[in-house]
């Protein structure tokens, strides 16, 4: 049985996709991959393929709408939805047959009780039928137990129920948010199947990091999920602690880091990274003259000469890099940046290759969002997907470069908007 | 990258800025959840599977218990009903009423077998015991609501005169219940209907209609009266009809939809007969009100009003004209385009009967713009409606003069008409072929037969007619052959250059001439 994989265009989805592809390969499942970047594409892709496929896997799309209503599939079509979008549409939750949701067990969905929102239509009074279709009046009528008062009561009860239902649904659906990263869910699946590999773990980390970078989850959730992944990281990577049985340097290792949240700083210069990370540029207000001054003060406070700071990070003096993280953290606190360090992971393979999870997120995202498109629509998506594999370092480096361009462009655009008073406070 | 903050607090700050929750609620678009019906039962079953087994257990337990209760009670009921203790009589009657008024499977047969119906009928006469009268009336109503045998049991227990007396009870709920019971008896068929009429049920019924009668009561009366107008073989007696009509006229002015609806149904029964019966209705002047009601959006009102008018125009030319004078032609176009196929069909049927009239009536069809919606219906309507529309066109071409037929063709009727030759129904095909023949006759009178041939050919009609020569039905084959032989086997006339009109079709123009008929 062939499967159609519909994958949304975000890094978490791509990571989840990678994991799933690896699992499919293990089990020799045949599948077709279709990237979708919106509802229209989802619908089109479905329509194009619905005659050839019975099984559809949706990654980071489809959970928050009534899928059956929108896609109108055949009765034997099955949808597996792994989507971090919340709230999940109630119809998807309560459909027992055609929609299968992949959700982590302790993800609290807060779904309203079935009886509060669905009602057996057959409870309706008989008059509704006759009234609506203008058929001839019955020749004989039986008078029922319940008299008018009871019927009015029933009607009132029904109205009350409906009002309550509206309220419940309103509360349930009024805020949109995100649940656990789909990549993490897929990793969980792999783990349950005892097929989890370090590579998959890394993708799960990247997926989670993507959610954090894009502000899709709260700090608390992020930290909790980091904790969960940390356990897996230990399990997969503890051999490195044992000197005797340590792995070859070429094997991939994941390490926990309490790292600086400066975008791409290890592949850039510290200066560039400080200027082009939203957190620092916004905290220091780098678009203004005072901001630039503050930056100088900040660097001075850390005792970092400008010349050093503007060099490629790898070329910075070792002595300066020694306690960099702690130093920066200390100074940052003085300048109102209390969260300059963040719990995260990094990946190492070979001597030269060390990447932070956020590095990968930025690189992959920029590949996907690359405005220069060569070839058909899906090229960027495929490139981004490929860059997640360790064998495609060239694509990764391309992504890093593009990410730098992107981050710079963002800063410049925002700075210019602010400076030309395009942003007005209401 | 988020700073540590309370999630919901942060969200609330952002979303509610400037608005309060009430305003937000008001702006919220209604969410309608529709569970796909195909899956619904499964889902409910699945979800409730635990519950169901519990309920079943309860039921089976309960039923045993309840059966016991019933059996005890059934015996007790008989005993009490036949006894002289009025309190027990009331209890027993009420228990009977309760059993008969439960939602599912009332034990009508069981109760009848107890043989207590004559007693219950007798209770109806206990003027000193209103509760007993009421319970007995309700119980008997429900027995009479079943099959013909059930109603028969009630009638044979002597219920008719008893209920008719109760119509004048000082207690409204009792007289209302009697109205209901009589409605069930009348609804059984013409036999009991006439029995009621012969027992003089109508005057006291009519007397109950007054401006102060509550709506619920009035609904019951209207329904019962409508049953007294119902059924054929035989039709209700004319004098009874004449008594009831004025009251229906009043009731049709009421604002309650059910009352209007049942009144219209009554009128539709009364117009479903010979022309004399139609005349009686027409004479009341009710037609304008009916046409008004035909234009109402509510199906329960529009359907019987349309049916009644449809019946009226099956009558004489004058009766049809009365309907036209009442404004039916202004309302029909909407109904011909109605979403519901049944309405389309009835409207087309009505139109076909008007089109069966003399040409001065057919002319009104043209002037009131009925041709366009007719052609539309012929083209895209529901198939059953299309069949009626075919009849309308056929009648038109039979009764219409040459000018009118030309007008019909100009309205674009040929294309959809010819398309319908592909229908599976032989009768329809025959009527269409007949119609085409009529149109050709008109064309011949104007010397335009050849142009019509070309037009038919242009519209792919010729190939369809030719195809019919191999039709299974003998008459179809012969009619098709006839047409072809008469009009399509002539020699080619290459020098005929037909002019094309602005719509690309051949211009079938007519010079104004005087036609003698």
Automatic annotation (TrEMBL), chain A:
According to the UniProt record, one GO cellular component term is: DNA replication preinitiation complex
> What keywords were assigned to this record?
Cell cycle, DNA replication, Nucleus
Localization, per the record, is: Nucleus
Q: Which residues form a coiled coil?
A: none
Where does it mainly reside?
A: nucleus
The terms under GO molecular function for this entry are:
chromatin binding; DNA replication origin binding; single-stranded DNA binding
Q: Which InterPro entries match?
A: CDC45
The Gene Ontology biological process annotation of the record reads:
DNA replication initiation; double-strand break repair via break-induced replication; mitotic DNA replication preinitiation complex assembly
Q: Which Pfam families match?
A: CDC45
Where is the sequence biased in composition, kind Acidic residues?
120-130
Family per record: Belongs to the CDC45 family.
Name of the protein in question: CDC45 protein
What's the source species' lineage?
Eukaryota, Metazoa, Chordata, Craniata, Vertebrata
TrEMBL record, chain B:
Q: Which SMART domains match?
A: ARM
Pfam families with a match to the protein in the record: Arm, Arm_3, IBB
Q: Which residues form a coiled coil?
A: none
Q: Which GO terms describe its molecular function?
A: nuclear import signal receptor activity
Ordered alphabetically, the record's keywords are: Protein transport, Repeat, Transport
Q: Which interval of the chain is the signal sequence? A: none
Keyword Repeat belongs to the record: yes
The Gene Ontology CC terms held by the record are: cytoplasm; nucleus
Q: Which residue range or ranges hold the IBB domain? A: 1-57
Instruction: Give GO BP annotations, semicolon-separated.
Output: protein import into nucleus
ARM repeats located where? 115-158, 158-186
Q: Which family does it belong to?
A: Belongs to the importin alpha family.
Q: Which PANTHER family match?
A: IMPORTIN ALPHA
Full protein name: IMA1 protein
In its UniProt entry, the species of origin is given as: Anhinga rufa (African darter)
Gene (name only): Kpna2_1
């Amino acid at each position: 049985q062939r499967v159609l994989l519909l994958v949304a265009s975000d890094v978490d989805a791509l990571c989840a996709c990678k994991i799933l592809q690896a699992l499919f390969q293990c089990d020799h499942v045949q599948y077709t991959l279709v990237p979708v970047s919106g509802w229209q594409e989802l619908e089109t892709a479905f329509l194009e393929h619905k005659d050839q496929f019975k099984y559809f896997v949706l990654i980071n799309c489809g959970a928050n709408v009534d899928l059956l209503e929108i896609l109108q599939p055949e009765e034997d079509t099955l949808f597996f939805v792994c989507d971090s979008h919340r709230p999940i549409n109630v119809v998807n939750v309560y459909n027992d047959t055609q929609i299968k949701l992949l959700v982590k067990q302790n993800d609290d969905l807060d779904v309203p009780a079935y009886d509060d929102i669905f009602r057996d239509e057959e409870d309706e009074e008989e008059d509704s039928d006759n009234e609506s279709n203008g058929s001839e009046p019955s020749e004989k009528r039986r008078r029922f137990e319940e008299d008018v008062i009871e019927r009015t009561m029933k009607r009132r009860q029904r109205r009350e129920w409906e009002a309550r239902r509206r309220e419940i649904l309103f509360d349930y659906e009024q805020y949109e948010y995100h649940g656990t990263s789909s990549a993490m869910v897929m990793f969980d699946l792999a783990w349950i199947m005892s097929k989890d590999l370090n590579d998959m773990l890394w993708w799960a980390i990247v997926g989670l990091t993507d959610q954090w970078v894009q502000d899709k989850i709260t700090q608390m959730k992020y930290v909790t999920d980091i904790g969960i992944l940390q356990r897996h990281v230990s399990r997969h990577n503890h051999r490195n602690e044992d000197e005797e049985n340590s792995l070859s340097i070429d094997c991939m290792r994941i390490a926990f880091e309490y790292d600086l949240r400066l975008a791409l700083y290890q592949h850039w210069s510290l200066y560039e990274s400080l200027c082009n990370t939203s957190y620092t540029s916004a905290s220091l207000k780098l678009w203004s003259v005072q901001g630039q001054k503050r930056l100088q003060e900040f660097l001075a406070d850390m005792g970092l000469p400008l010349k050093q700071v503007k060099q490629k990070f790898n070329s910075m003096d070792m002595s300066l890099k020694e306690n960099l993280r702690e130093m920066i953290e200390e100074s940052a606190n003085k300048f109102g940046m209390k969260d300059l360090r963040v719990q995260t992971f990094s990946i190492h393979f070979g001597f030269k290759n060390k990447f932070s999870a956020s590095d990968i997120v930025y690189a992959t995202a920029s590949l996907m969002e690359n405005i220069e498109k060569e070839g058909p629509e899906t090229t960027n998506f495929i490139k981004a997907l490929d860059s997640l594999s360790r064998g495609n370092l060239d694509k990764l480096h391309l992504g890093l470069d593009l990410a730098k361009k992107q981050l710079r462009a963002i800063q410049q655009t925002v700075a210019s908007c602010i400076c030309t008073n395009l942003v007005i406070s209401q | 990258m988020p700073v540590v903050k309370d999630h919901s607090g942060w969200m609330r700050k952002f979303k509610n800025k400037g608005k309060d929750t009430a305003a937000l609620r008001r702006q919220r678009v209604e969410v309608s959840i529709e569970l796909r019906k195909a899956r619904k039962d499964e889902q409910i079953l699945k979800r409730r599977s635990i519950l169901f087994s519990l309920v079943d257990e309860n039921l089976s337990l309960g039923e045993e218990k309840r059966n016991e209760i019933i059996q005890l009670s059934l015996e007790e009921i008989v005993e009490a009903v036949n006894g002289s203790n009025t309190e027990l009589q009331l209890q027993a009657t009420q228990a009977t009423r309760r059993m008969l008024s439960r939602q599912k499977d009332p034990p009508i047969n069981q109760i009848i077998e107890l043989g207590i119906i004559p007693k219950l009928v007798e209770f109806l006469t206990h003027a000193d015991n209103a509760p007993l009268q009421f319970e007995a009336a309700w119980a008997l109503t429900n027995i009479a609501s079943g099959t013909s045998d059930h109603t028969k049991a009630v009638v044979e227990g002597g219920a008719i005169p008893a209920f008719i007396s109760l119509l004048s009870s000082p207690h409204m709920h009792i007289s209302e219940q009697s109205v209901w019971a009589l409605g069930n008896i009348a609804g059984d068929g013409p036999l009991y209907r006439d029995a009621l009429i012969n027992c003089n049920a109508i005057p006291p019924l009519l007397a109950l209609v007054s401006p102060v009668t509550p709506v619920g009561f009035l609904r019951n009366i209207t329904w019962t009266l409508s049953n007294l107008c119902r059924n054929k073989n035989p039709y209700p007696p004319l004098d009874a009809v004449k008594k009831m009509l004025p009251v229906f006229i009043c009731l049709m002015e009421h604002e309650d939809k059910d009352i209007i609806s049942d009144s219209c149904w009554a009128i539709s029964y009364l117009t479903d007969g010979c022309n004399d019966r139609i005349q009686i209705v027409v004479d009341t002047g009710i037609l304008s009100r009916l046409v008004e009601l035909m234009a109402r959006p509510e199906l329960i009102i529009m359907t019987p009003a349309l049916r009644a008018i449809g019946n009226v125009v099956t009558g004489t030319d004058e009766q049809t004209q009365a309907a036209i004078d009442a404004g039916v032609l202004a309302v029909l176009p909407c109904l011909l385009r109605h979403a519901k196929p049944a309405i389309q069909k009835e409207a087309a049927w009505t139109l076909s009967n008007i089109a069966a009239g003399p040409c001065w009536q057919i002319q009104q069809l043209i002037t009131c713009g009925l041709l366009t919606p007719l052609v539309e219906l012929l083209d895209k309507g529901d198939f059953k409606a299309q069949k009626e529309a075919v009849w309308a066109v056929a009648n038109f071409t039979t009764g219409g003069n040459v000018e009118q037929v030309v007008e019909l063709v100009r309205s674009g009727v040929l294309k959809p008409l010819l398309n319908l030759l592909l229908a599976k129904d032989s009768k329809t095909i025959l009527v269409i072929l007949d119609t085409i023949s009529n149109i050709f006759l008109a064309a011949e009178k104007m010397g335009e037969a050849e142009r019509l041939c070309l037009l038919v050919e242009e519209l792919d009609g010729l190939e369809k007619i030719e195809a019919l020569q191999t039709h299974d039905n003998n008459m179809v084959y012969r009619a098709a052959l006839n047409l072809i032989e008469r009009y399509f086997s002539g020699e080619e006339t290459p020098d005929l250059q037909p002019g094309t009109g602005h719509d690309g079709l051949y211009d079938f123009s007519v010079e104004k001439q005087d036609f003698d008929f």
